[in-house]
Fold each of these.
Amino acid sequence: MDPAALLPTPDAIPVDWGWFHVLLLLTFLVHILLMSTMFGSAFIGFISYFQKDGTANPCSESVSHTLPFIIAFTVNFGVAPLLFVQVLYGHLFYTSSILMATYWLSLVGVLVAAYALSYLLKYRYGRLGWLRLPIFMVIVSLFALIAFAFVNNIGMMQNPSTWPRYFSEPRGLLLNLQDPMQVPRYFHFVFGSVALGGLAIALYFHWQQKQGDWTGMDWVRRGCRWFSFATMANILLGLWFLFTLPQGTLSFENLHTQALVTALSVGILTAIPAIRAGLAGRVVATLWWTLATMVSMVLARDLLRQILLAPWFSPAELEVKPEFTPLYLFLAVFIVGLALITWMVPFTLRNCRGGQV
Amino acid sequence: MNYPVWQLAATGGGLWIILIAVFHVYISHFAVGGGLFLVFAERKAAREKSQAMLDYVRGHAKFFLLLTMVAGSITGVGIWFIIALLNPDATSILIHTFVFAWAMEWVFFLLEIVSLFLYAYTFGRMVGWKHRLLGWIYFFSAWMSLFLINGIIDFMLTPGTWPQDGNVFSGFFNPSFWPSLAFRTFLSLIIAGLFGLVTATWLKERELRDSMVRFSARWLLVPFALFVASAWWYRLALPLEVQELIFTRMPSMQPFISGMLYTTPILVFAGLLCIFHLPPFISRLLALGLLVVGQLYIGCFEFIREGGRRPFIIYDVMYSTSILTKDMDRIQDVGLLSQAKWVAHHQVTQENTHEAGREIYNLLCLSCHAIDGPMRDIKKLAAPYTPSGLDAMMSGMHVFHPSMPPFAGTALERSALAAFITERLVGRYDLPPAQLPAKEVALPDFDAENNAYLLSVWSPVGMKHVAEIDGVLSLLPPKAELRAQLLERGELPEIISEDVLVSYRIEGADAGTLSGEMESRDDYFIAENIVYNPAGSGGFDPYPVLVVTARDMEGTILATTKVVLPVSTEIGCSTCHGSSPELGQKAGLGRSTAFNILAMHDQFSGTDLTLQAQKGEMVRCRDCHADSRFQAKGNGRALNLSAAIHGFHANYLRGRGEAACNFCHPSSLTGSTRMFRDIHAAFGLECTSCHGVLEDQALGLLKKELQAGKERARALMQRLPAQAVSSVEAIEPRSPWIQQPDCLHCHVEFEPPETDTLVQAFTENGEGLYQNRTDESGRIFCATCHSSPHAVYPADNPYGEMLDVLQPMQYQDNRLPLGANENCQLCHTIAMEDEMHHPNSLRAFRNE
């Protein structure tokens, strides 16, 4: 079976694909930051139980209090890239989703369960006692499952040559396990999440200190160390990931490859000062270097996708049936929405007794 | 066609969509109305300066946040997941067409989250109006989400002019957009009241509880009039064909329409009841009950809305099978498998019938029909059908099942699909070719020198078709008929019909069970109402041999002959209406089959015949449907039986030529009866050669009924194309049984035929029928010499070559018509020179 013959015909788009590409990258960047914070902070909150301060540690309590909010925004900022990836790569994404449909659909239940448990932790933290640990463990496991499913799906989406397996397993039970990139790619995301989770915890306690609450002062340093060590490991994982790329994927005469190498280089070059700042406990500096790294890595991820899909499809091939008014409307709503949020949050903080929500 | 199919079996048929969507829709409407509820409840607390009430609102807000965030938002994403998995083609259209509407909805979703968090976690810590402002922002954002999603959802039901102009605004602000928005807005307020009742009834303090319960109940009652008005507006906004589909043509919608109609007063009365002080336990029970009623209510509504667009996923744009309407003709022409990307078999062959059928099932059926599951289980639905029956059903399913799309594929693909479903899934097969036993019959003696009389006996119909289950259904009652003429031989033979007794008795295994006397009429004898069951004595014998004897009044035998009484219960009902255990491997009408037919009739015509039969009152078709054979006038409203039966079934049997006749009549060359057994069959003529094809048959009968003012005929004619003539207008209206093809339509002036195919040629009235016509003397029936229609001499009976030529063999030792080959001596005892009976009668028989 020729995989090229299996490629569904995509639908036309209303404006040039570049618009969607930019929107996809922007919203995905926010999503990956939030998702990593969610997964990584939950993981560290869980692991911190096994450290010397055990159940009384302020990290897990803080994580349990903030986790539902992070989940809410992670989901929300997941919706936007999910939308734009459907616009550009829908015909590939739907196909890979169907190939692993059973796992894919189960994510709805998995996410509801993780979300509900996070609220249970938030509202019943004090009363849960020893149950906190298994609940944390379940939440982290569920997050790990979700990440695993997403990495599988995107991996299969980018590799149509594996699609003919459908004819021997059409029940939506396929995974991308035969792909050498799958494991390093997954752990690259997991370790990236742990790093960002550590950084988020450090930032949280740093902000708490600025508010005059010194309860978890040690966690600024510990969060930064989590970040630095996880990032160091992640550079190695990234290299492993790089070496698992199919032979011939990277051709240095190719513009995309050159851009990819540049983005990766920038990513690594900015990660090094981020690690050093983390080890030194300079949380704000770590944040800025990390943001630079994340922008580079998001770009690198996108370039790699375009390289991998090059034999099959490019979004530039999509037919355009021009209709610009809806785009302008969206941009207007987007700007007004952001403005409203920008007004609403300070308005609330300003008018709220105690000055925090 | 474009995508792989997630091969669910038991959980197919849209089960996952229902499980996720119905729940999500309830919560998401609560997320809209509930926001406004919070703002107003908080204002009430502020006005009444009640901290306890404010605490209640805070608690309700927390409950609201948990439910809408955890269950509402994630199941919303879940809907995206599931629709993309089950119908990626349609999802892709929705995403690509409305991408910026979705994107705007995402912005409002973000606003909802931010404002709700701020609102819910700042209770009691902000100045009232400033806090409520956050609530208002939340409500506005949530309502805008509804606004945007509403446009996309209703686009699927009423895409407006989008299919023509492709303009996103035409699709978004479609004909049902505004009424649907009003409907959903008011519904969301009612749902907010339902949830408000749940939390309010749990309040401990009585005064506060009563106050908040009444407050919540008002949310049920106040928007109600507007809600009902918007529902009516919504209905009126739907195109007429959609309205007709939902409210008239789809019986499957009725439980859901009734569900909404019945639960509406429950909501109102329960709301009124809540205004009074009730014991806490009762009010909590009531609140929880109402919550369930609310879920059922919205479930019914969504089911009706979804049902209304069937058989489309996007009305008139894409079928629920993911086939674009504009592609249907092409796919029916070139085939589905050749166009599908994700199939292993791109054409049907003898070797891959089931496998290819399975792939067609995945592409066309699985999205609505589970296998062994709760959603429209195909095994249950297909159980009554044989492969050929299901094939026929699928060819016309879109005509009478408005929720079904036309079959998207070639006839061969349809047949493969039918074979897969019936043979592989259900385990039912078409009947194998019947093995017929050979019958030997001894000829009675005839001495041309000494026998003074000649007795000719025949059945006026070529085959008496019987379909009746005692106490259940009488479609074709078992009343066979024989006619006879007795001639006294001589130079001028005399027809004897007085002072003679003609009796008949069955020969063979059933001897003694069937006998009787024939009545004397002018020039002939007749026996009516002969009841014979061909399946009565273990085997199946549709051609029992009767010995017929003529005696004078003293009992002296004047003449004896034999004849077959053609009676068959082989009718094809079980092909589509389920077999019955008593039928075994035989065709026919069994008890279960009869009940299935009645149930179908009830479903399509709104009758209660099943109930009638269950009470033991036999349903006689002719009580309502006129049937000239039995002088039944019907009820005056229903179509005559022939028009109804042929008109309905022709829609499933189009384009099949002679095979269509064999579906029901005992004419199949592999069946147990093989009723067409005369010389014409030997020359390769088929039923349709004289009668025309089923479509034209049905159209003629229906046109006659339409002329009589029976509008029902129009619906049956709507999708029937004329075959032998250029248009339906050229079809001659026809009365059943009395307007039939006649020999002389081909054998003009008794000459050899110039054609072997008749087009729209029928007798003018009953007198012109072959069974009633005579020779030029007006006294000798055509059948006296030529025998029964469909068995005219020389005929060849499948149970024995002698069976249909017993009399010519007895009288003249050949198989030809009596007197053929100038054998005038048979009656006249001498050779004759003049053609007394009809032109060309004095010549050698052409087809000996």
Amino acid sequence: MKIVYSWLCEYFESKPDIDFLVTTLKKLGFGVESIQKIGPDCRGVVTAKVLEVKKHPNADRLKVCRVSTGSEEYEVVCGASNVKEGIIVPFATVGAKLKDSILKKAKIRGIESCGMICSASEIGIEDNSDGIMILDENLQLGVDINDIFSRDYIFDIEITPNLSYALSHWGIARELSIFGGLKLKNIPVENNISITKYLDFSIEIKTADCYRYAGIIVKNIKNKNTPFFIFDRLKKIGVNPKGNFLIDLSNYVMFELGQPTHFFDLSKIDSIIVRQALDGEKFIGLDGNIYKLSEDIMVIADNKKVLAVAGIIGGIESAIDNSTSDILIEVANFNPVSIRSSAKKINIKTDSSYRFERTVDYNLIDLAIKRIIFLIKQTNPQAEICFFKDIKNVIPKDFNLEIDIRKIEDIIGIKVDTKMIFDLLKSMDNSFDGKFFKVPSYRHDIKSIWDISEEYLRYIGYDSIETKSFMQTFKSKDDVFWEIKDEFSRRLSVFGFNECYTYDLVSLKDIKEIGFNVNECIKILNPISSDFEYLRPSGLPSMLKVLRYNINRDIKSVKIYEFANTFIKNDNKIEEKRKLFILMWGFNNEWEWWKEKKVLIDFFDLKTVIDFLFNYEVEWLDKGFNFGINGGVIVLNDKEIGWGGEVKKSILKNFDIKVDNVFYVEIDIEQLRDSFESDFYSLLKKPKKPSQYQSGIRDLSIIIDKKYKFSEIRKAILDVEDIEEIRLIDVYEDSKLGKDKRSFTFRFIFSSYNKTFTDEELNKKIEKIFLILKEKFYASLR
Amino acid sequence: MTKEEWLSKLFQIEHYFDTIKNSYPKSDIRDIFLGKKGELTLLLKKISEIPVEHRKEVGLKGNELKKMIEEFVTEDYENVSEVLNEIDITLPSKKINFSFRHPITITLSKIIESFKKLGFSLEWGPLVEEDFYNFKALNFPDHHPARDMQDTFYIDGLFDSEGKNLILRTHTSPVQIRTMLKYKPPLRVISPGRVFRSEAVDATHSFVFNQIEGFYVDSKVNMCDLKWALENFIKDLFGNSAKIKFMPSYFPFVEPGAQVEVSCVFCSGRNINCKVCKGVGWLEMLGAGIIHPNVLKNCGYDPYQWSGFAFGAGIERFTMLLFGIDDLRTLYENDLRILRQVV
């Protein structure tokens, strides 16, 4: 909300210092977002008359002017096209200060200029301006510009919903007087609202959502020029004043006191009925829009039509126009929830609805009426009050709170100064006796001792909160997900992976392009754009986009991972899973190095990474995966924990990725929980003692049918006694080996805690292994 | 034996040699290939089975391999002069990427470590939430204007038990409710994670970002405990000279509520032209306060028996300060040229 400094100051007995105001507002929790200085920013600039304008002898564009400040005459050079003889202008003499610079004597194209005729921007009145500023012709000469245009400040203040009672100049002033010690002045009002010429009129409330409704009829308003101070103030806070007093006055009172009001043209209405709208009822707003209403929207109507949506927007059919002289002034109070839901429903937000939905003080109506009548009478002494009715439909109860100092101390942690708290509460409730606090009607936010604690802290200053604690020491428990993340990150770093953070929302196109079933995906009702319309069912689109981004920036090796969630719909239930996405592409040894050749990443590099993450305890089931053929499902302890492999070329093409050999894995972290909580990782932390005997090494080359997968062959011989490790050191395929055959060369490491094996023993073991292979897989020696 | 069979066998032997030559002592290699029953020795003997016209060709190839293996097995230290060992030690080493964690994770780790020291444990919550946990139980009643402070994304076609659309959580605070409903006090919990606000992306806003939530519930918890805990954390993150300041603020789920400001980590309030704090000297970093009695009641805790403090902060803001990043979007672009500089 915008607050004008000079306007605010009007409510105080003495003008507070600007810095004091800013500091106090911040101290009270009003965020001061900006302070705009307006008015002239100059010194030594006075009014002057242009006596003569001549062409500059050496420049077509320039003019030589003779100006008078009343006491002296000067010759100056001026470049503005709007300079004319006889006009009054702001004139800076040599030595004047204009914003941040000092004006010096200057020679312009051979002619000495003894001063400067200024534009509005040069003296700081406007941000941008064209030509020199032309002042009122009736002004005296030699008057300081600062005496003509007053300096002012406009604060932009953030007012959180709990402080809505301060959504006005007067509301802020009241707050500053209670919490900042500034003394308030009375606002000029008309206390005597007497009816001078009675008119029969009907006001009826037919809905419980209208708490209070006051209607005053004022006739014979003839002077409809908005007084300058109202016009100027509305302009400063960014409300476009219309110049029509009746329209501007309604706005002015709202920004002054915080009470929204509405003025109807009396000639256009026959009565006032506050009721719920009928389903399908139509209404044309002041904004020219046609609104279709429904039963849950509260309206102000007469016998024939809807006049306004209550508390939100007035209607064109009953609006004030230039010929209006008789009006009905509505000053009302409505149920905030009703206003908020109605405003949402017809999708409109006004300064009025903004205040009503944040709760307006029930008793503010009294002050607002007196103030409005006062302001009308100021310019229209002839105006007549013909009707005044104030219906209190729902009366709020007084709210008393017992002040328990001990509880406040428990909440804030410091000792309460009883005098301070008494002073504070007394200033809000004059009847406060030290025990029971009657919450003033405008402080609808105060409901408990916690709220009083905050008020006390605001009063003494939050700086009084000390940095001290009696918190007992406590051991935090380890978190399995965080440990998994930490452990995996560390392990992935071995291969040079980088962690990414990508958006959880993707487009429909992304989902279609990886071939995912859109019906299983979760759509956002109100996306910010179609690029981010769905929760991602897989990390693949996001990872591919990161790949593309980096390929386009000439990166030759992209190894990335992200810990994030995937979302799918299953039987109208959300399945949200924590996942690890891994993508790799490019060269294994990413930067050229003189000692080695660059090697392209292939499937087995991916497999190495995954095996390494899981201590070589996972298995791959060779059954392909959704996004490619060369790949499969990853199994740990008989549980499917993930899938992945080489990404299909068609998908890469969809993402405009012009390379292939892109490998992707998605791991379901949730599934790992058991493994991590069991001894899977604790084994890692307790190393096995190596045997003190030398291990024996034997190689074995066999030829075997291709239909046998390596994993089954390995499994068949894994349990042979004393095998510490089986390494596959060569895979060789050649038509010479026979049709559909291949050759494996194994290296076996045998070891025992009891002895060193003799050659003979080792040979026997190898024979045994070969025998198994021969029997099970018809293997032959190579 | 045909010439082709012979050459194929020779090729296999060469392949085998290449595979194992460095894994056995050289004497064993000599035995395997060149010994009396060595693979190559036996093959060379079979030259006699090959038609005469091809013998010269295969012989040449066989001897080539034999010479290569012989050279390999006889080469040893004594024969190598010191001069040959001289290398240009200024040749470059291998470049290795070791910048694995994202700046956001690094920041988060520091924050978590700091609170772990004070006994806080991690808890997690879902990103797709129900109105109850995200708003209602946190003292945002239906139609409360405070709901406007957070622009919410709604899920299409999926509803909670009250028939309200599911939403993407707008803050990490629902974890407070979930945790309090699940456990009994005392509780010390932190909960990091992603949150969503329907806001356009710019240098300081994003519709996805990370937050961390923290809360402590015990028999007597007050504003001073809160300030103490937060100052501990801020010092862990920014060093001993960092100071914090509380200002009044409003969040429906705390009362009294505070905005926590941290002395500018760049200028410590000494530079009126500081770009980071804009000369103010303080940076708004966290929201905090005493858990609102309504929140405690909603979780079945008696607010006169239990009390607690809670705080929340955006992680990215800390990340940007710690890493000197001035555009939030940088963190979600994943430009490896940037990420690789972060260790």
